[in-house]
Structures are given as C-alpha cells and as structure tokens.
Amino acid sequence: MNNKRILVVDNEQYIQEVAKICLETVAGWEVVTASSGKEGIDKAETYQVDAILLDVMMPGMDGIATFEKLQANPVTKEIPVILLTAKIQASDRRRYSQLGMVTAIAKPFNPLELAGQVATALGWNLDQ
C-alpha cells in the first residue's frame, strides 16, 4: 500500500466523494477533502499532504487564487498541485504550467483512471 496523502479541493461534494473513493480504492492513498479554497489551504497546512487536486471554478476563492496563496505560504509552497477543471484548452494548459502547476485533469474525469493520471503526473509508482 502507498502511504501518500492527497487533498481534494472541490466545492462539489459529489466530485470529492468520487475522487476519494477512487484514490483510496485504486491506489490505497489517504484522501482528505475540502469544499473551498480557504478550507483547502487550512487542510494543506494541517495534514502535510503529498499532493493537491484543486478545482479551478469555485465560489469565493477560485482555484488559481487558492494556488497562489498555497505558493506564497512556506508550509505549502512545495506541495505539487494538479488542477481539476472542465476548462482545459491548450492555452489554459500553458497558463497553468507557467504558474507552476503539475498538470490539469479534465472534468468529468474517468474515476478508474484518476489514480493513474495523478501517479503519472507526479512520477509516482502505483505498485509501491
């Protein structure tokens, strides 16, 4: 079993639940969830997560603003961030990459492929 801890930040409860079930079942990772950018930042600081899956479009603080706050915080700036977004044109991918995000995964995602996509993006081996 992998002892990775992933934070899923998404304002949609359904997305949180699907991601949590898939990542725990397929990869054996521990998953922490948050429903807003502020809650995500708090949990990233508290739980010392190995990676963050971050929704782009959220009310209040969106994913980009959340990412910028994570980057400005010495406790969370080294945590790799993968965006979850329905908006994933080539120009968006370039912008996200320039900001320092690992990659973006399109929503809706295939639940059975999510762990593999995350592992590939981060260079993790699912069989460890």
Account of the protein in words:
α1 (13-27) packs across α5 and α2 (37-47) packs parallel to α3 (63-72). The protein has helices at 13-27, 37-47, 63-72, 90-99, 111-122, and strands spanning 5-9, 30-34, 51-55, 81-85, 103-106. The chain contains five helices and five strands. The chain has a five-stranded parallel sheet, sandwiched between helices. With 128 residues, the chain is of the alpha/beta class. The chain has one domain: 3-Layer(aba) Sandwich (Rossmann fold), CATH 3.40.50.2300. The model has no long low-confidence stretch (mean pLDDT 91). The protein starts with a strand and ends in a 6-residue tail after the last helix. β4 (81-85), α4 and β5 (103-106) form a beta-alpha-beta unit.
Task: Tell me, briefly, the overall form.
Answer: globular
Largest sheet properties: 5 strands, parallel
User: What is the second-level CATH architecture?
Assistant: 3-Layer(aba) Sandwich
| Termini gap | 7 Å
Strand content: 15-25%
Structural class: alpha/beta
What letter string, H or E per element, gives the SSE order? EHEHEHEHEH
Give the full name of the CATH homologous superfamily. Response regulator
Rounded average pLDDT: 91
What is the count of helical runs?
A: 5
Strand order of the largest sheet: 2-1-3-4-5
Task: Tell me the number of structural domains.
Answer: 1
Level of helix content?
40-55%
CATH level-3 fold name:
Rossmann fold
Radius of gyration: 13 Å
Instruction: Count every beta strand, where a strand is a DSSP E run of 2 or more residues.
Output: 5
CATH class: Alpha Beta
Poorly predicted segments = none
